[in-house]
Amino acid sequence: MGTNGSTMLKPLRQGLPPLDPAAVSDAASCALPARFEAVREARRFTRGTLDRWDVGDRFDDICLVVSELVTNALRHAVPAGECRGGEQSPCVRLHLMRWSERLVCAVRDPSHETPVPRDSDDFSAESGRGLFLVESFADSWGWHPLAGSLDGKVVWALFRLRTAC
């Protein structure tokens, strides 16, 4: 990342979201195939899930970030549009997890490459702004490599939810 320009992002955080996974109140996930139509499937899945969870004014932010994370996974983490592990093993998996006042969307992919935000002031470019949008709309985000027999990484975004008064 560069040190100048109005689009400078915070340093990329490596690690898990700062939430206790045992305290999750709602969770949903779906496997996505290695084709760009999967972004539409991810949006549909996210909208249906968020409708049931009542996330208030963060609905559109979360849907946008899910689209960007899934697009990035398909574009940069799936080699030549094909899954490792064949058709039986999904390339990308979307996880949505809700706590009382927070929501995490996490996208698992088969790559070991670190997500790298582009340092670009060119807002007319047709691509390259995905992680800038994630940074802009999520409260925090990061990534972590998968452990054990799982291959790849998870890129996550955390959203603070307003509670009803």
Automatic annotation (TrEMBL):
The keyword Zinc-finger does not apply. SUPFAM superfamilies: ATPase domain of HSP90 chaperone/DNA topoisomerase II/histidine kinase. Keywords: ATP-binding, Kinase, Nucleotide-binding, Serine/threonine-protein kinase, Transferase. The keyword Transferase applies. Residues 32-143 form the Histidine kinase/HSP90-like ATPase domain. GO terms for molecular function: ATP binding; protein serine/threonine kinase activity. This is ATP-binding protein. It comes from Streptomyces actinomycinicus.
